[in-house]
Design goal:
Layout: H1 2-15, E1 22-24, E2 32-34, E3 42-52, E4 55-68, E5 71-81, H2 95-99, E6 102-107, E7 115-120, E8 125-126, E9 134-136, E10 149-155, E11 159-165, E12 179-189, E13 192-201, H3 232-239, H4 244-252, E14 274-287, E15 292-302, E16 307-318, E17 321-330, H5 343-346, E18 348-351, E19 356-359, H6 360-363, E20 371-380, E21 385-396, E22 403-414, E23 422-434, E24 445-454, E25 459-469, E26 484-495
Antiparallel strand pairs: 1-2, 3-4, 3-26, 4-5, 5-6, 6-7, 7-10, 8-9, 10-11, 11-12, 12-13, 13-14, 14-15, 15-16, 16-17, 17-20, 18-19, 20-21, 21-22, 22-23, 23-24, 24-25, 25-26
Length: about 500
Amino acid sequence: MKKAFCMVLLILALAFYGQDEEVQSEENPNVLQTGGEESMYNGTAVIGGVTIDGKNYQQIGMRLDIPIGKLGIGVDIQLLIDQEGNIRKEDWDEFSDYIDKIYYIRWGRKRRDPFYVKAGGLDYTYLGYNIIVDGYSNMVEYPAYKRLGMEMAFEGEKYGGELLINNFKELFTDNPGLLLGMRGSYKVWGDLEVGATFAADFNEYNGLRDSDGDGYPDVIDRYPNDSRYVTEYDYWLDQADNNSSFVDDAVGYGLLDGLKREDLPQIPKDSKQTTIYGFDIGYPLYKGDLMNIDVYGQWAKINGFGSGFSAPAFRIKTGPFIFRAEYRRTDGEFLFGYFNPTYELQRAVYDAGKNDFVTKQDRLESIPALSGYFVGMHFNAWGFFTFSADYQDLQSGSGEEVKAVKSLKGEFSINEKLIPKLAAARAYYMQNNVEDFRRWRTPDTIMGYELGYNLNEEVAVFFDYRYTFQDRNGDGKIKGKDEVIKTISITTRVLF
């Protein structure tokens, strides 16, 4: 029955097959779609393997973009089948799982229409000049976990506004929370624009996922989908009809881990809230056919902690280059771009050394007053390839007491149309707010690559590798397979 259902899903995907011209997605230029806004259906059928939480699945899926004028509906239906032929039940056992099948609903196109709104998966979201929200993504753990967020933007002659919500599903947890970001702008004189930004995470502990609702997050729960057990000791105690002496003997002989449920912390019942507000001002210093130069300044404050500013700051656009440069300074306990692409990985983590949970806010207390610079560059080589890189270097003190907060982001992609049979070629690396780049693998790191090969004009095979890292034992180093989270997706996509 399950196999028949999978075949029906695939046939439905192929039924929408057409010959539309290929274009790039406006929301994410790395995602290839087909057809323009006048097409009836755009999308892909997906067949292949994927690894989630160390377990291999066969994936059969269909992703559609259905445009109806300015309205767009994205549908993402996936069946993950294990080696025994069973469909992954975690994807279908709750009402919210069915909501997840709607990849997004949008109205208009970002940076193209005066009003734009999108609900669902968010690839990268920025507010203002990025001092607070700098490329936040709610898809960093997709497809293992999908968040249902929203972004909105409008722009008039004088007024403008932006909105960010990370995940509506957090409103229905035992301890509700939400990441909310807002920005308003106003042109006070000619093109001189001022803006105000507010962003708050109303509960950073919501970064700790608890799939079975037993109060112990998945990261420390040996049985994350079974609320009866948390540790190996719990499981075998139940199997032995609560004969603790038998289980204790097994622990004594080294056959079992002696860690018990009561030895581990539960997710705190209170909330850990982080609120940030800021202001900015910008003016187009020069507008020309060959070059545009914008000058801007910005300031932000983390409520209860420190503040920071960047000024002077410049953004230069000329030909294929976009270049940014900022002088940055803080009075301590402050991070630029607090809500960044890796935020959902940093939001709340388990520190094995402390046997407790640590939020990103907790890290602020150890950050001194800093000053330094930020530079960023985006280069589009006339359609051959694109390259972007951002680098931040902030330091405090002198001599042996120097402390640093550094960030590095880079991405390189090749235009697939230049190489026969190439469907995609992209590599990326991102590490935020670290002291030393000699450790290139940290809990703040995301890296990976994607390669695609066209079997023919309609069918392509994609190899997608993404790596994130967790310091499970709290020793400050990434070692061993259990601290490297590898998400592998090998898929065959039918373009239609």
